[in-house]
Amino acid sequence: MTPWLVVGLGNPGPQYARNRHNVGQMVVEELARRAGASFTSHRSRAQVADVRLGVLPGGAPGPRAVLAVPRSYMNVSGGPVASLAQYLQVPAERVLVVHDELDIPFAQVRLKTGGGEGGHNGLRSISSALGTRDYSRVRVGIGRPPGRQDPADYVLKDFAPRERDELAWLVDASADAVEMVVRDGVLAAQQRFHAPG
Questions:
Q1: pTM for this prediction
Q2: Which CATH architecture has domain 4-193?
Q3: Nearest to 52 by CA among 36, 68, 63
């Protein structure tokens, strides 16, 4: 069975590790932690971990997935993602990208397949490298910057103190969303995570 390729977007290096822009990477690291897996370097310029995600009814391990964190900067994520997809022979419909989303309020999780990139340079790079937008996304809401702050500066700052209390919950919920997409499909996950309240 073809694995899923689950990509957590962010920028490499400790100075970026806790930035809003790196929340996708935080989610994929949480998935690896849940699976008891460690990342190893892959020639595609990514850190990867081969895991089973979640648990099926009856207690069997969930579907196979390769978790990936590109070692490139966000704006050129597409090269490592396309290289890994080709290496693993994973079609676009089994690629799931976890990323920060300015247009979704902080601490909300939304899912979609295909569509535009909403000005997100990491997604734009992936769409270009894959030659399609028909991959799935777990969109982790970080909200819009306050006042007139430049969005480009906002995403490269760490979460505010008042947000940090909820950040662990948000990463956890986003990891749950990834597991549900891989196990049950995007539609089922949308019905759960898009429900009001």
A1: 0.96
A2: 3-Layer(aba) Sandwich (3.40)
A3: 63
